[in-house]
Amino acid sequence: MSETTKNPDIATTAATASDADLLAQTAIAVQEAGSALRERFGAVVRYQTREELMLALAANDDAALEVLRPRLGTLRPDARWVEDELAGGALPPGEWWVVDPAEGNINHLHGLPEWAVTATLVRENQAVLTAVHLPLTGQTYTALAGAGAHLDGRPLRVSETAGLGLSLVATSQARPDEDEQVVRRVGSSITAMLQDALVVRTSVPATLHLLNVAAGRIDAFWQFAGARADLLPGALLVTEAGGRVSDAEGRPWTPQSEGFLAAAPGVHADAVATLSR
After folding, report:
1. pLDDT at 167
2. Please, how many CA atoms are within 13 Å of residue 93, restricted to the half-sphere of its CB?
3. What separation, in Å, do the N-terminal and C-terminal C-alpha atoms of the chain show?
4. Average pLDDT of 14-31?
5. Angle 80-224-94 (CA atoms, 0-180°, nearest 5)?
6. Which of 114, 99, 24, 96 has the alpha carbon at shortest distance from 62?
7. Could you say which DSSP state residue 234 is in?
8. Which among 241, 210, 221 is positioned nearest to 168, based on CA atoms?
C-alpha cells in the first residue's frame, strides 16, 4: 500500500502544494536517489557483451528508481510516468514525470564522474520544474518556469560572450547506434564548429553540458536527435538563466525537433549560422 493510500492527507497536500514547494521536494528526491547511486560508484564495471552492459545499466537505473518512484508518486499522485527515458516527441495531455535516474549511466559504469540524477515535471507538454543532482559534488541545480534557475539556491546566469569566435561550445552523442544520417550530420557540425568557435568539447551526457551553459561556463551546446529526458531539464535551466533555446536552425524547439541548440544570447545567432551551413 502506498503512503498516499494509507494517508489521504498526503495526496491532498501534494495536489495543492505550490510549484515552488513541489520543486523543493523534487530536489530532495533526486538527492536521495543520488545517494543510492553514489554507494554503487567506484571501480569500472566490466562487461563482455551488449547484454551484460544493458544489465549493468539497468541495475543502476533500478537503484535510483527505487527511491524516485515512491517519492515523486507521493508528490503528484495523478502525474503519469514516462517509462522510456530514451523516448522523444510530444506527451499526451496532463502531468508527466520525465526522469533520468542515472543520466550519464555509461560514465558511472566506467568510473567517470560525469553523471547525475534528473527529474522534470511536464504539464501540458511544458516543463514546469526540474531538479538535477550531481552526487559526487553534492550540487543540485533547479529551475522553475518563470522563477529562474539556481545552483544550491544561488541564481544562475548564462555568459555574456558576444560572438562564436570567443566561445567554448559543446555537443553530445544522443544515443548509441544512431541513424547514419544523424551521425554524418553530427560529424559535419563538429567540423563546422571547430572552424568557427574557440574550443569544442564533445562528451556525454547532454545534461551536464547544459548545466554549464546555464551557469555561464559554456557558451553554447547543440545536439542532433535526443530524448526528452536528455534535453528537457537543461532546456528549462538555460531558459530560466537567460539563455536562448531553439532547434539547430533557430526555430522554436520542442521534443519533436530533430536538432537542439542552447546558447547565450550573444552567441546564439552565430551558432545557428554555423550549424546551418
Report:
1. 98
2. 0
3. 57
4. 86
5. 15
6. 99
7. H
8. 221
SS3 249: coil
Other CB atoms within 10 A of residue 147 CB: 13
Q: What is residue 17's predicted lDDT score, i.e. its pLDDT? A: 54
Minimal CA–CA distance to 144: which of 218, 240, 209, 230?
240
CB 238 within 8 A of CB 262: yes
The count of other CB atoms within 10 Å of the CB of residue 241 is 26
Q: How far apart are CA 238 and CA 260, in angstroms?
A: 12
- N residues, the chain: 277
Cell for 26? Answer: 523534487
119 φ/ψ angles, rounded to the nearest 5 degrees: -145, 125
What are the grid coordinates assigned to 32, written together? 536521495
CA-wise closest residue to 262 among 228, 220, 211: 220
Of 116, 143, 117, the C-alpha closest to 128 is 143
Q: In terms of Cα–Cα distance, which of 94, 93, 112 is closest to 102?
A: 112
Report the distance separating Cα 209 and Cα 169, nearest Å: 9
Q: What is the pLDDT of residues 175-214, one digit of tens each?
A: 888 889 999 999 999 999 999 999 999 999 999 999 999 9
Cα–chain center distance at 192:
25
pTM of the model: 0.92
Q: Are strands 168-171 and 220-224 parallel, antiparallel or unpaired?
A: parallel
Give the model's confidence band at 115: pLDDT under 50 very low, under 70 low, under 90 confident, else very high. very high
How do 116-123 and 139-144 pair as beta strands?
A: unpaired
State pLDDT tens for residues 48-102: 999 999 999 999 999 999 999 999 999 999 999 998 877 788 899 999 999 999 9
Angstrom distance (rounded) from CA 133 to CA 236: 15
- Total Cβ atoms within 10 A of residue 40: 14
Q: What does 160-210 look like in DSSP terms, one character per residue?
A: ---SGGG-EEEE----SS--HHHHHHHHHHHHHHHHHSSEEEE-S-HHHHH
